[in-house]
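Tokens as discussed.
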């Protein structure tokens, strides 16, 4: 795949193009991975699919305490966890594209792809949050999809 570039943000693959990418860096030149947006790669019942969500995205950070202690009248956290989340959006999709992207909602393996500081594409396992996702809310022939993904939890602990 070196030297290959895609002309579309939509890439449906049925081969092992991204094999080995899961736990290691890969030397691929997928131009779409370097464009602004959220690039997801997931396993569907048809094979591996990839899509660049170019719509406006929202980033959040869900923080919570995993235990507290009280010292001298002050409540202090023993441990805190935070989960970065992104609500990614895509619009102007055909019904065929939307049908394939919907497989993302039931995929057991989803990865966010991004170029690392060394220029190689990195994969981070993410989880599609449970819930009901709007696919299309009007009679337009073009569809919109949004998906909320959670990244691995970050933990901070009192020394």
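Sequence:
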């Amino acid at each position: 795949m070196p030297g290959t570039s895609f002309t579309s943000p939509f890439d449906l693959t049925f081969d092992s193009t991204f094999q080995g990418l899961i736990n290691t860096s890969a030397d691929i030149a997928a131009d779409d991975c370097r464009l602004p947006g959220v690039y997801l790669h997931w396993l569907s019942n048809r094979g591996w699919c990839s899509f660049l969500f170019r719509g406006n995205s929202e980033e959040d950070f869900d923080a919570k305490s995993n235990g507290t202690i009280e010292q001298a009248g002050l409540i202090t956290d023993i441990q805190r966890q935070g989960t970065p989340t992104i609500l990614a959006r895509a619009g102007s999709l055909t019904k065929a594209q939307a049908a394939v992207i919907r497989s993302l909602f039931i995929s057991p393996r989803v990865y966010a792809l991004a170029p690392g500081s060394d220029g190689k594409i990195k994969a981070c396992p993410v989880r599609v949050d449970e819930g009901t996702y709007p696919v299309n809310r009007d009679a337009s022939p073009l569809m919109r999809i949004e998906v909320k993904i959670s990244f691995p939890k970050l933990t901070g602990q009192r020394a």
